[in-house]
């Protein structure tokens, strides 16, 4: 999937060295002082204060407008009572350009406090927001706010506005022979004749047409009502795919696009599938009151949010892409999207957890935050991270607790790696629990670092290379291997494991240390036994290494492993 956004040539208002360029070489200070000295109001020559321009905002005939200052309409004039300043609804306007201009000016409240600013609330102060017709809410005039300058100049020939962004939704080739046989021959390039036209279908959410005029709509070849459409029958158009899906789409020749546009922004989704370099893990989810814990500012409730686990298996860091999209709110009765004046801000946090965790994380202090995308009021947020071997939990969140929304989460992994949504707070009782027993305590062990873990065997004359140690942790039939630290006799691991233990008295935790070899079997460097206490508690310990027991005789080896233990009973499982 490829999304392309095109921007018009006239938008280039800054140079390569970020030097500000005045619009049409106009100086605001000189214009203002000149109008003040002459005692006249400013009027934009490109958008004069004429009745036809005002009618283009509403879409029907108007009587002569009545100009008033904000204080003449109400005592406290504001553009928007509720919600953020930019969330202005369309209301009775049929052209969204005015609404966009008002949303821009709403963020500059000083313009409403200035008595020298004249406003045009429409016909007899009737230009109101139908969604919230408050008495102290008005909308200023289109030309007095000079909003067309922000939207860009309107080209009378092409119909484009220079500051518009258009999305490329489809391409089409019009063959010289639009019949069925001509289309087939053109597709297989049997004929050497060049196609009649190459067309692009563009879409703009700001393209609104009214009875009076339209902004942002192409007026040239293949525009609505042009001669080119009369030369093609409806069947021919459907055959070659020359159709539009919404009113905001239109077709434009490639030659015209090259003439009026200066460049394109290409947004590419990573290629997934069997032969693609990425593997996609997609999840549909919802935030509701019971699982909406807010952002990291609310540490006590943050981990109530949905959690998604994935595991990185390579020793070298690999890249992971994360995309979180907030879904539109859909009205089932009207079969339409519900406009949100104040949508919730979304974000996500990436936590490193125990390397064998299979259930939800409950305590933030036991996790390591390795990535964070702060909550923003965007439709989609994106992150790119390089992660080492380990297990990670991705937590999407809203800005405030108890907020509600729907979302779609995409995790692009370098290959088909283990991933799933974490639903349960503790391991579920399996069918063999009658034989294995029910857990009574939970032990979290963190491998901190090792000391003097040199190889026990000689590597040849003059060899000074260090070992590459790693640990293997086992308990009650479960065995997990930690990460390797290359060429270091005093490695730092900082890797955690969690065990739900049913027989802590009979089966202790065993740590085995090995030296990773490039060729042949890994060398055994020693093992240590941890008789974790039955009671709850925590502490740091230095574990001495011994040889494997033979006839109950164990030989002390050089080297130690430092660990941190934290034990709770099953009643307090939410503390781990």
TrEMBL record:
SMART domains reported in the protein's UniProt record: C2 (SM00239), calpain_III (SM00720), CysPc (SM00230)
Biological process annotations from GO: proteolysis
Sorted UniProt keywords: Hydrolase, Protease, Thiol protease
Coiled-coil residues: none
Domain Calpain catalytic, first and last residues per copy: 159-270
GO CC annotation terms, alphabetical: cytoplasm
Domain C2 as annotated: residue spans: 414-545
Location of the region described as Disordered in the Swiss-Prot/TrEMBL record: 115-141
SUPFAM superfamilies assigned to the protein according to its UniProt record, in alphabetical order: C2 domain (Calcium/lipid-binding domain, CaLB), Calpain large subunit, middle domain (domain III), Cysteine proteinases
InterPro entries for the chain: C2_dom, C2_domain_sf, Calpain_cysteine_protease, Calpain_domain_III, Calpain_III, Calpain_III_sf, Papain-like_cys_pep_sf, Peptidase_C2_calpain_cat
Presence of keyword tRNA-binding: no
Pfam family, one: C2
GO MF terms, alphabetically ordered: calcium-dependent cysteine-type endopeptidase activity
Biased composition (Acidic residues): 132-141
Superkingdom field: Eukaryota
Annotated family: Belongs to the peptidase C2 family.
PANTHER family the record matches: CALPAIN, CALPAIN-5
UniProt name for this protein: C2 domain-containing protein
Gene source species: Taenia asiatica
Source species taxonomy: Eukaryota, Metazoa, Spiralia, Lophotrochozoa, Platyhelminthes
């Amino acid at each position: 999937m490829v999304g392309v956004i095109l921007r018009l040539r006239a938008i280039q208002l800054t140079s390569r060295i970020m030097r500000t360029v005045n619009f049409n070489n106009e100086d605001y200070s000189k214009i203002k002082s000149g109008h003040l000295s002459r005692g006249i109001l400013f009027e934009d020559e490109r958008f004069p204060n004429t009745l036809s321009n005002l009618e283009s905002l509403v879409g029907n005939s108007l009587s002569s407008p009545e100009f008033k200052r904000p204080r003449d309409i109400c005592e406290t004039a504001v553009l928007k009572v509720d919600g953020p300043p930019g969330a202005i609804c369309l209301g009775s306007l049929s052209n969204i350009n005015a609404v966009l201009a008002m949303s821009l000016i709403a963020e500059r409240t000083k313009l409403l406090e200035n008595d020298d600013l004249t406003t045009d609330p429409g016909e007899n102060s009737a230009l109101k927001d139908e969604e919230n017709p408050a008495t102290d809410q008005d909308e200023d005039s289109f030309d007095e706010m000079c909003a067309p300058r922000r939207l860009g100049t309107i080209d009378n020939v092409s119909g484009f506005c220079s500051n518009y962004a258009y999305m490329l939704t489809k391409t089409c080739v019009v063959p010289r022979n639009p019949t069925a046989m001509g289309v087939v021959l053109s597709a297989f390039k049997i004929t050497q004749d060049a196609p009649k036209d190459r067309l692009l279908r563009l879409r703009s959410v700001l393209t609104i047409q009214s009875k009076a005029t339209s902004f942002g709509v192409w007026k040239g070849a293949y525009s609505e009502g042009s001669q080119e459409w009369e030369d093609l029958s409806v069947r021919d158009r459907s055959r070659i795919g020359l159709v539009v899906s919404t009113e905001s789409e239109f077709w434009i020749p490639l030659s015209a696009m090259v003439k009026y546009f200066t460049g394109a922004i290409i947004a590419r989704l990573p290629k997934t599938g069997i032969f693609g370099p990425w593997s996609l893990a997609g999840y549909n989810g919802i935030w509701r009151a019971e699982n909406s814990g807010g952002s990291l500012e609310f540490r006590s409730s943050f981990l109530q949010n949905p959690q998604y686990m994935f595991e990185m298996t390579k020793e070298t860091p690999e890249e992971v892409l994360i995309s979180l999209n907030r879904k539109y709110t859909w009205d089932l009765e009207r079969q339409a999207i519900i406009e949100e004046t104040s949508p919730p801000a979304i974000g996500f946090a990436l936590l490193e957890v125990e390397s064998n965790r299979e259930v939800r994380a409950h305590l933030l202090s036991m996790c390591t935050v390795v990535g964070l995308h702060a909550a923003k009021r965007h439709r989609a947020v994106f992150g790119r991270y390089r992660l080492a071997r380990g297990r990670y939990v991705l937590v999407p969140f809203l800005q405030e607790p108890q907020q509600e929304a729907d979302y779609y989460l995409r995790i692009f992994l370098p290959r088909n790696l283990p991933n799933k949504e974490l639903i349960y707070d503790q391991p579920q009782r399996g069918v063999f629990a009658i034989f294995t027993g029910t857990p009574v305590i939970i032990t979290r062990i963190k491998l901190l670092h090792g000391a003097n873990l040199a190889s026990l065997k000689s590597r040849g004359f003059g060899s000074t290379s260090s070992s590459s140690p790693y640990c293997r942790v086992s308990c009650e039939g479960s065995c997990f291997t930690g990460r390797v630290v290359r060429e270091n006799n005093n490695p730092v691991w900082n890797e955690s494991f969690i065990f739900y233990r049913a027989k802590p008295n009979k089966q202790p935790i065993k740590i085995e240390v090995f030296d990773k070899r490039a060729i042949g079997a890994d060398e055994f460097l020693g093992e240590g036994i941890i008789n974790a206490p039955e009671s709850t508690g925590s502490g740091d310990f230095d574990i001495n290494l011994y040889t494997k027991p033979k006839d109950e005789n164990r030989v002390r080896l050089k080297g130690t492993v430092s660990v941190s233990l934290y034990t709770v009973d099953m009643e307090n499982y939410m503390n781990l």
